[in-house]
Amino acid sequence: MYHCKTSDTINNPYPIKALSLHLFDAYVFKGEDTPDLDFVLCHSNSTPNDFDGSSANPDRNRFADYSWLDAGTKPQFDMETPLTVRVQGLVEWIQRSYIKKCTGELSSTLGNINSKLSFDYDSYLSTISGADGRCVEGVVQGSIDHTCLALSIPLLQEKNEKICEDLGGILELYGKLTGLGGGSAPSVAKVEISLLMVLMVDHSSVNVKALREEVEIEAKGTEGWVEISIAELVRRVISLQGLPRHTGQFQKTLQRSSVCMMDFIPFLESALLNCLWEPLHFLQLVDHLTFLFGLPLDVNMGVDTTSAQGAQVSRTATFSYVCEEPQASALVVLRYNNSRTVPVVEVTVTQQTDPAKKEKTTSKHVKYRDDLDPKSKSSSISSGPIDVALLGEATIAACTETIVSLIKPCKRA
After folding, report:
1. pLDDT tens-digit map of 375-402
2. What is the pLDDT of residues 136-158, one digit of tens each?
3. Which of 49, 91, 209, 212 is deepest in the core (most CB within 10 A)?
4. Domain for residue 67, yes or no?
5. pLDDT of 307-325, one tens digit each?
């Protein structure tokens, strides 16, 4: 317990969570004539009967050792600082201190609970370090029959500059094509990508079970549009669905019951780069089509924001086009799957065919020339991404040809 002369207790405990694990609760109370806050840490789901630290009641299940708290980084406040801000600062300080403590003990801790995890950490994970000092962090939560381990593994640190550039391009094009906000798009100065894994190790069998495994992206920079944050923009435009998982999918790919992190992390990073590249390629293609069709009616980035990992659906863009032929219009729907294949484009032409203003509607999928479609035997396109300028020009040409072919039958009707 951190001691200061206390008065009012803040009624509800504050959960201390680190890397998604609920580790313990902080019972916080205000000091007299001081902005400092006192607190007692208790294991989660336990309720102390008093707050002054005098009771030895085992039911309170409180911490006795606070030596791991980093006093040098404890936030300092004044009396004018709102209580909620002081409490939040205190909670975050406790979180950071505990993560630092557990991370420093990871090697010895893993050596005691699981040899496979210990090997992964000592041989590879502990060597990961970025220019800004980011490294693998972990927290451990033990019980009688099992131990929970949460790891945060930094990804793609050496490619941060390129990722910032690509993500900035994505946000700028997305704002332009959707009419979102006014003024300059947000600038992206730093992107932190991490793999969060929560594992449970059974003490009797030493088996490891994955409780959670997901990639998190945090973008930092200047906010360009008041109505939407960078974080929300990233959730709208980047889909992480379908990324390989260390537990299950990746093991099946290699047909091995046990795979090492030094095999998996580069594999995951390669897939992640593709997740960041595909939205940019798609938006560049849509932007190219605006030269003929104008701004799209709708742009769907193929991300389901209600899903934790963002359920993947096809990215789509819809355009309305007024044809040169009098009283004819076209609706163009582009469905984009990936940067290595041509999109599926459907053109629907509506035309008034008589003075009574009866309309006739016909639809057709555009056909790309064979040398552009990688599925064609005569294709000259490699297995890599199709050049977006080449694809844009070919899409405009194919759409124009299809529109003309649909209007002619209408004229004969």
Report:
1. 654 455 556 789 999 999 999 999 999 9
2. 999 998 878 888 999 999 999 99
3. 91
4. yes
5. 544 445 689 999 998 877 7
Do 52 and 112 belong together in one domain? no
| Residue 325 token pair | 């032929």
Q: Which domain-ending residue is among 44, 70, 102?
A: 102
> 62 and 125 in one domain?
no
Long-range contacts from 251-260, C-beta under 8 angstroms, 24+ separation: 258/116, 260/119, 260/120, 260/123, 260/124
Q: Tell me, what amino acid is at 396?
A: I
Q: Tell me what the pLDDT averaged over the chain comes to.
A: 81
**Distance between CA atoms of 23 and 112, rounded to whole angstroms?**
20
Q: What is the mean pLDDT of residues 225-240?
A: 79
Q: Token digits for 51?
A: 């707050």
> What is the span of the domain harbouring residue 334?
323-412
What is the reported pLDDT for 227?
A: 61
Same domain flag for 155 and 123: yes
Whether residues 142 and 268 fall in one domain:
yes
Indicate the pTM of the whole model.
0.81
**How far, in whole angstroms, is CA 12 from its chain's centroid?**
32
Domain boundary among 102, 133, 148: 102
Dump strand ranges (E) for 86-174.
137-142, 146-155
Burial class (CB in 10 A: 0-12, 13-18, 19+), 200: middle
